[in-house]
Amino acid sequence: MVLHPHDVGVLVAVSAASSVAVTAIGLGLLRAARRRPLRDAALIVALTPVFTVVVAAVAATMWMFLSKKQFGVLIATVFFAGIGGIVTSMVLSRTLMRGSDALRAAANALTRGEPYVGPVGTPSAELEALAAELESAHAKLDEARRHDQAVEESRRELIAWVSHDLRTPLAGIRAMAEALEDNVVFTDADRSLYHRRIRVEVDRLARMVDDLFELSRIHAGALQLSPTRMPLTDIVRDAVVTAAPVASAKGIRLTESGLDGFDGDGPLVDVDPYALTRVVGNLLSNAIRHTPDDGCVRIDMDHDNDFVKLSISDECGGIAADDLDRVFEIAFRGTPARTPAADGGAGLGLAIARGIVSAHNGRIGAMNVGPGCRFTITLPRVVDPPSTVPPVSSPTVPPVSSPTVPPVSSPTVHTFDPLDQPNGRIRGDAQSLT
Questions:
Q1: Is residue 277 domain-resident?
Q2: Using alpha carbons only, how large is the chain's radius of gyration in Å?
Q3: Within this chain, do residues 22 and 160 fall inside the same structural domain, yes or no?
Q4: The domain containing residue 172 runs over which residues?
């Protein structure tokens, strides 16, 4: 049968109108079923083209484009095709719902803190990507949970240790004060000794409180730095001069390597002189304390295009492998005993040192090397010199960081002025490892 062009146009218009009408109804049903199970939406999608063909066939029959026999054959064909589409959509929806249920169960496991078990064989690329995101989220949550547990455990240990460390000097101060009040101490020499001991314990408490306050500022992100562009050797030599009398009293040699290459036009760093002096002084103090008499503490400096490195090595005999990762923990002393040593601290110094170095975008680490251990500080190097350079009186004289620090003429000979550093302490007197 050959159709007239006018009839073709009518047939196309009828088919298009039927398709638009049924599709609009299908979209409305999909919108109404958006909160229904996925199988309902799949059923609507499968039936929409079937009803589109049926409505178009009915309209074509009414316009006499199809005979009743042709209409019956078409309806029977569409009926069985619709059954196939419905079965296929139900299988697909069931598969998608099974994958969705597995992902929901895995997500619920995350909220309960249970181990994550991802679905096997997700039915679509979208669900596969969602499963990967859930697995990544689980890994991050698990890491955050372990970090929180470690922080909570560290907080409890800190409270217990600091309480003990505060109680011990307070008990001594109270006992000596009561002895003086009750006139139990008779001689002037003993009274003077008690007064000195009280002052020593008070100084210990003051240092501990200062360190706790500094540590709280570091953890709160409130550490205020005043960076200055300068050679790192200025800070190192100040710390060496301060530590020299303590080392000399034990017969310990302080040797330097690589410091001369950092003078003059050597690499610069942007650091807070006071904060970094505290870090270097603390590391030197620890190295001297743990090095046997007549031993050696070595200070090395090196640099490349990006970083400046400072290493301090001692002869302490090394740190236990299990303790290497804990030396920078708060209140860790390297021993479970909390008995205060005569020259020891509360174990806060290295934790403070790590916080200060991190605030300078640097790194600090420890490792066993030779007869002892080595602590290394790595700081970003300033490649370009500052835009404004303060005037120097003589171009042949290198700048000196502090007029009160005499130059070190030899790597093993150091001078010290007790008026510059009272009691041989560095500023801040950071607490030590032990």
A1: yes
A2: 40
A3: no
A4: 150-224
* Tally of structural domains, the chain: 3
Q: Is residue 145 part of a domain?
A: no
Q: CA 432 to CA 290: how far, in whole Å?
A: 10
Closest alpha carbon to 44 in 110, 99, 89, 92: 89
With beta carbons less than 8 A apart as the criterion, state whether 291 and 252 touch: yes
Max Cα–Cα distance, the chain, nearest Å: 135
Report how far residue 232's alpha carbon sits from residue 237's, in angstroms, rounded to the nearest whole number: 9
> How do 296-303 and 253-257 pair as beta strands?
parallel
CATH number at residue 183: 1.10.287.130
Residue 141 belongs to some domain of the structure:
no
pLDDT in tens, the chain (434 residues): 555 566 667 767 777 887 788 888 878 887 887 777 777 787 778 778 878 788 777 777 776 666 777 777 777 777 777 787 778 877 877 777 777 777 777 777 777 767 767 666 666 777 777 777 877 877 888 888 888 887 788 777 777 777 777 777 788 888 888 888 888 888 888 888 888 888 888 888 888 888 788 877 877 777 788 888 888 888 888 888 888 888 898 899 888 887 765 555 567 889 898 889 889 988 998 889 888 888 899 999 888 888 999 999 988 888 887 777 778 877 666 554 444 454 555 567 888 888 889 888 999 988 888 888 899 999 998 875 544 444 434 344 344 344 443 443 333 333 333 333 333 333 333 333 33
d(CA 63, CA 7): 9
Q: Are 273 and 405 in contact (CB under 8 A)?
A: no
Sequence-distant (6+) residues with CB within 8 A of 22 are 48, 51, 52, 55
